[in-house]
Amino acid sequence: MTQTPPSALTGRPASDEATSEEAAAAETAASPATGTSDATAPDTASDAAQAAAPAPRVPDPVKQLKRVRRKARKAEAAVAELEARIAEAEQRPAYPLARPASMKKRHWGLVISFVALVLAPLLAVMIYLWTFAEDQYASTAGFTVRSQESSGANDLLGGLAQFAGTSSASDSDILYEFIQSQEMVAAVDKAVDLQGHYSALWPRDWAFALWPEASLEDLTWYWQRIVGISFDSGSGLIEVQALAFDAETAQAITKAIVAESQTRINALNEQARADAMRYARADLDEALERLKDARQSLTQFRTRTRIVDPEADIQGRMGVMNNLQQQLAEALIQYDLLRGTVSPADPRLTKAQQHIDVIRDRINIERQTFTSNNTDTGGVGEDYPSLISEFERLTVDREYAEESYRAALTALEVARDDAARQSRYLATYINPTRATEPEYPRRAVLAALAGLFLLLTWSILALIYYSIRDRS
């Protein structure tokens, strides 16, 4: 598109327009001077005031004409530049305007996929939940394992018991695993007939019902869906919730769980009692055998040495030695008195000397019996230090065996007393409840979760499609 210059609009050349503009400027410059001369007929007072004021400055027409010419040349240059730009723009290729937006095949495919992958499945889920899904009733029971032996300590410890760890907490752990076991499922199925109840609605409610002729393993898997267990390892509290298609069956399931848990706790008690009694009896039998061996060893020692008590025997021999020493002292005194009153050849002096020699020999023989193995001198065939050491060892063994036997007897009595009472029992703090209205399935929650999952799946697939399309 070409813009028409100003010269073409008037039909005159640019030089003529410039000449007319210069003439107009000259007339404008001359007009002030003429008006001034024509208006000089004032009064006497005004003439005096004008004579006193300075005369106005008249602009030079030549300078104004030059200024106007410069402006005209600049305008001509701007017009020429504009015409050049217009010509250049006309030579460039013209781009067409964008057409209005419209739906294409990929857009229709995205809409169809949204309907097929999100709206249709969500509608099917909602129809199933509100039409075919059967109402379910919930029954709750709560219990814990208590121990008579540790209850006092737990009361003293208070909140610190959960950090210390008690036997009741370990029993609760065992019970928590037992409730989820196949043995519990089989026991409850025998009492309540789980397969008959949960397979009655098959295949109408196939999502929440159990298929017919399910095996015990399948029933154990299905048990995790209908029974929820909440376990607090710190306090040992266990809460069980069972779901069923009628309130009576749900309550019967929780009652069966509580009964089987009580039976298992009693079995643990019986096992603990049997183990305690068995260990106590084993310790008592071992202590009795040790006592018999110690007494038999002491009897063999006395039979071999013919000494009942070496300490008493040596005390008797020490009494003999003391008596001989006393006799030797008296004989020496008698000998000294007799030697001072009679001659050396007196037979009484010789007899006194012989008496002294016999006493000394006997003392030497008695001393030899303490450390000699010779029985000719009246010894027992073994030295007394070894006999005393062996006797003391045998005595210590016998005393230890007797103390062990007494301790084993006491332990057996304590084990018998513990076995006479129930040390562990199941304390139920929430009896099995019976629902008055169905709480499950939670249709709104399930529908919202299904819609969210379907929307996320569709979004991921759409992003994957557009990513592959942009790369290809």
**Would you tell me the overall average pLDDT?**
78
Q: Can you give the helix content as a percent range?
A: over 70%
Give Rg in angstroms.
65 Å
State the end-to-end CA separation: 41 Å
Runs in which pLDDT lies below 50 for 5 or more consecutive residues are 1-46, 150-169, 374-379
Secondary-structure content class: alpha+beta
Count the DSSP helices.
Answer: 16
Report the β-strand fraction as a percent range.
5-15%
Q: How do the helices and strands follow one another from N- to C-terminus?
A: HHHHHEHHHHHHEEHHHHEH
Strand line-up of the largest beta sheet: 2-3-1-4
DSSP strand count = 4
Shape: elongated
Please describe the biggest sheet, giving its number of strands, its sense, and whether it closes into a barrel: 4 strands, antiparallel
Please tell me about this protein's structure:
This protein has 472 residues and is α+β, with helices and mostly antiparallel strands. 71% of the residues lie in helices and 7% in strands. The protein contains 16 helices and four strands. The chain has helices at residues 6-10, 14-38, 44-52, 61-91, 105-132, 148-157, 161-164, 167-179, 182-192, 194-198, 216-226, 247-305, 310-341, 347-371, 384-420, 443-471, and strands spanning 137-147, 227-232, 237-244, 424-430. Strands 2-3-1-4 form a four-stranded antiparallel beta sheet. Helix 8 crosses helix 12 and helix 9 packs across helix 12 (247-305). The longest helix has 59 residues, at 247-305. The protein is elongated, with a radius of gyration of 65 Å. Residues 1-46, 150-169 and 374-379 have low confidence and may be disordered.
